Known about the structure:
The protein is α+β, with helices and mostly antiparallel strands. Helices cover 47% and strands 14% of the residues.
Amino acid sequence: MTLRKKIAVSTIAASVALTAFAGIPLSNKGLADKLGLNGVTYAASALTDSALVTEAKKLYDALVATGGWPKVQALQTALNVLDVHVKGDIVDPIVDRFNPTDAEETQLEGLFFAAISLSYNPSVEGLDNLRTQYGPLLQTFATEAGVEDLTVDNVAEYFFDIQKELVAQVKNKSLSALLDLMQNKDSVKQLMRDVLNALSGKNYAVQQVFAHYEVKTADVLEVLTRSRTAVNKDSLFTEAAVALFTAYESLNPPTTDPGTNPGTGTVTPVIPLPVSTDKLLNDLKAALDKATEAEKTAIITKFVTDAKAEITTLAAISASTNVSIVNGQAVLQLNETSLLAAIAGINAVSDKVKEVAPASALAKTALTINLGTITQKDVVLNLSDATVKLAAAGSVSGATFVVDKFEVTIPVGGTFSSAIALTIKKSDATAEVVGALKSASELYDFNLTVGGTATTSFNRPIVISIPLGDTTGLDNELLSVAKFVDGKLVFNGGRVSGGSIIESFVSFSSYVVVENKVSFSDIASVEAWAGREIQVVAAKGAIEGKSEGKFVPKDKVTRAEFAKMLIRALDLENGSAVESFDDVNSSDWFAPYVAAAADLKIINGRSASKFDPNATITRAEMATMISRALKVQGAADVTDVNAALKGFADAAKISATLKEGVAFAATNKIVIGDAGKFLPNNNATRAEAAVIIYRALSFDN
């Protein structure tokens, strides 16, 4: 009776595994916690066959690493949230085989609900509960079918073997062929028949019970069809299928190369180009084949223009329809096939420009992935492993995700060389969070995984544009992005642009934008020409007082101090930069700033091995460092250095190696002379440094 309904539930779970390619004995939080995937250690002995737990963990890790986990979760959630009566309708083709009475209906629905929930969110606890509550009934029912010792573990094992057989049957298909298959319902049904038939001769205890009650393959396939209809979104099934296929493929990589990449042991996939890209390249070839030498220049010039337009089009990804709500989070699930094609198109067009017009070679471009309006506070952004690798190997520099007015640009390469998942959580910036400061944004908390591994620091910066809230009554120049470190706010700066503030990060924590008013009691003597500048630069965290409330404006600036001011103010931190100066130790407070400046060739040592961090810095040296830093950010060179310097009576005193930097700084009024002289060898004061940094912050190309 009720026991009969229970064994029917097992059939449902098996059919669901087929339906989604996602009946994984590891789904949401329950088993992840038990397996230690979320920091909780669990001994697998609760399962009779601990190999099942091992298999589950491997598959989970592979799904995370390849970026497929959110896609599987989205399908599982869509099925889980169906009304219990809808679930009952889905499984009717199997339930009817057991001829339930009206009196059994309520019990039947309750059992189905519990078992179907377990099939999507199976936990060790859930399996144990099934043993305790339904084990004896299950065995009684199995005994009626002539099967002894049937356990819940037998059912779980059957799930895994279904998955393995399915993967075995599709493993030689390309990703595009798999997608074609998934989009054809008849082909899917035939694949399912083939999978079930392949398992039919293996004498599973579960199958023996199914056979006794005449549960047919056709019944399972009908459940498959009803599941799709109930969810009413085929793309969820397709994307979950591709996610699992990719995850299993990553666990069983090919051992030989078919010839596209000899000696590497890996397969280089052939990704079809977008139709527009293919046409652009073919039209170029056809035109050049027919052209005279005199005509080719014009053809190539036009192609370069068309290539830029094509890349701009390919790089703009509208992703509002690729967002699903999973456990209250807005989860981005990009169509990997389309995205890979776009990247392949960008790479192909860039390569062709470099080939036919080397002088016009195009800079790398970032994808712009627009999610549209999102009302959820939590957002999960994903780039799959294949996407990251193809982008990093070609002409794509990274991806800018746009969520309403919030933007984040994630690079590819370096730290970011495998599947990327970024979770953004927003909350109110309460007084408990910001204290007496006035907030100008919500509180943002970021969590990043790369290749499935939590990552809090990286060697290439992530750039974030945080939308500002109501700034009425606030001083925009004093707004700063503040980072929480050991429960305290550390000011990172950022530059206000329109209604947002933009900042680069080489590590992640929680952030909020605040108005940071800093005051010093000893700047009256420089207030007229440096007071505002000191206040703004201090608000950004780029320059600090020498003691509480004391700026000491007339003290000389050291080379180490200016390196920190400049790198912090202009967002040039680089977590991977290293320096090789004998007089700079890695533990020195200024070491990371000197390293970043040296890496960008903003600053040189006083010799090959000496940086001389405590030496004072001259006005000419400071001007040169500023100019080099701004050129890193795209500023143009001065075309005529001598003309730019001719107005200074002491131009001859400027070292030849510093003239270009002084010319740039003087032309752009970042460092200004005094009474017709530049005073290149004068030591710069802290007040002068603050003014120069302020002007650099305000510099506009």
